Amino acid sequence: MFAACSPKVVPKVSEAASSVVPPVALAVTNKVYSGQKDSLLSLAAAEDAPMIIDSAGNQLPAEWVATVNFGIRKPNYVVLHYTAQDSLGQTIRTFTLKHTQVSAHYVIGKTGRIVRMANDYLRANHAGVGKWGSITDMNSCSIGIEIDNNGKEPYAEPQIKALIYLLKQLKTNYSIPQANFIGHQDWAPKRKPDPGPLFPWQLMAANGIGFWPDELLVPAPFNYDYLTALRLIGYDISSPKDAVVAFKRHFIQTDVTPVMTQLDLNVLYNLSKKY
Ligand SMILES: [Zn+2]
What reactions does this protein catalyze (predicted)? Predict the structure, then answer.
């Protein structure tokens, strides 16, 4: 689900169309895209001395000397979303309208069709406000993937198959740790429900994408400090109830009540040793 979108204002476009977006509309949005990309690249390539001011308001001596050893920063997380919209075309449309202010690097249709909408090295607006571990700006270090799903239906098999191939490739390309594939609900427990309890995290983990509890669980210790355990995995525990629900939507799925049962505690204890 988008960080700050309002899907109601976006007209529906059928996925059956051979092109997801009409060529005329694409020509317009491509022009906006190019202009924005050029301005970002010139910003990244700026060669200025740093402007550092001391407590008296004086500028410290500073200069620019170009190093010869540098590269581009890589994404280190992947955040998975469902679109909460009705079709791939509708989502593509949302992400090509300036006023929605939302985007993702990839959108995956129910047929397994993969649409890339921003280069992996660029920052897309998909995660919004949240916290995971010590990360407070997830958009700056992650790739966002939107899965075409209205949030109430099972994920389509060809879609999940395509997603796994994509995730494996991203994992290899950028050496993304297995723990760093998370859901939007994990990043923003107070605001976001996606990709929800129907998302096949167990299958993902079997493919090296994120973790899943073992079948045999050692009981959690008596008086287990589950909030600290949730925090160490990455959850924002400022609202304990929301953190518990987010955890259960990801790792329990069959029960998403805001209460930690003995099974939930055992699962968390098991997972805490993997992160
Ligand atoms: Zn989302």
Answer: Hydrolyzes the link between N-acetylmuramoyl residues and L-amino acid residues in certain cell-wall glycopeptides
